[in-house]
TrEMBL record:
One of its GO terms (molecular function) is pyridoxal phosphate binding. Residues 238-363 form the Alanine racemase C-terminal domain. Pathway: Amino-acid biosynthesis; D-alanine biosynthesis; D-alanine from L-alanine: step 1/1. It comes from the Bacteria. Its EC number is 5.1.1.1. This is Alanine racemase. Catalyzes the interconversion of L-alanine and D-alanine. May also act on other amino acids. Coiled coil: none annotated. Belongs to the alanine racemase family.
Amino acid sequence: MIDRQALRHNIQAEVGRLKAGCDLFMVVKANGYGHGAAQVARVAKEAGASGFCVAILDEALELRAAGFNEPILILGVTRPQDAPLMAAQKISATVAATDWLAEAAKYLALAPTKAPLRVHLGLDTGMGRIGFRTPDALKTATDFMTTHSTEFIFEGIFTHFSTADDPDDRYFKGQVAKWHALVDTLPHRPRYVHVSNSATSLWHDACNDNLVRFGVAGYGLNPSGEAIPQTPYPLEPAMSLTSELVYTKQLHAGESVSYGATYTAQQDEWVGTVPIGYADGYERRLQGFHVLVAGQFCEIIGRVCMDQMMIRLPQAYQRGTKVTLVGRDGDQTIRLQDLADYCGTIHYELACGFTDRLPRHYIN
Ligand SMILES: *Cc1c(COP(=O)(O)O)cnc(C)c1O
């Protein structure tokens, strides 16, 4: 279940604390971190987002097809062959190399529409992923766009921080210094100058400049996990996950459950079957973790199967009884962060890993 009110709260709170003239683009890559890209984009727009970021061209096209006319920035590297399509759809491309521009220029010159491509130059200041790394390389790119002004609009420039969610800010400060050493050499600033993901805007908002790429915190998840618990406003998680008991039985002492027979009952006990498994993105590593039934923690016993798993119940419950895998039931809560801790990963990975087989219900 996706709580639109939580999304609205987080995004409005963020928009409300940005300096005048600073825009927020909601990051809706990976199907809106598993929450549903178009649904999230709709709420984000109402809450004050003026554009969107995605990772790949297909995600940008999905938003255009859903009727969004706002600016869309693709954060990853695209194919130069797709430059005319992006130009025609007014989708902005991240460019990390001048030879990309040279190749794209050829395709753009041949395109019947003659629309210019909007470009955001990516700078690598220490993330080590994509981007220009030296003032000379950056100048070559901006000069190329100046001499090819029919093909390109130099719309933005940005970098990405790798440790903005770390209480130790030494590496972060080094990246900020490298960013200035590059961006301050520009003779003209483009429309959008941006460095901030969620963590940067929450904890280092002095460097925001005029655009924030707001992702995980918009979904109500702390970008640092639990490393920096303080946030400027409370984050409200939008995603919860519930299922129901489809089958219950009493297991006798000595009887085993699931593949590999890794769990054997020590005494007579009630067991429920829940129709969810790793093909839904509910990780196999969650064996031994718990869910909530009637406000009580129930252990996941035996291996998590592809489509089903078993839990130990404190008593008999009827088929159809609600099972909460993520969210609140009674006085107890299971957070995505708790699942992530158990699996040794981060909530980002689990949220975007829930597959299409799980229907998303939108409330509020
Ligand atoms: C995914 C991504 C973001 C959003 O990051 P969050 O931590 O979810 O806020 C911002 N910028 C870039 C370049 C990204 O890849």
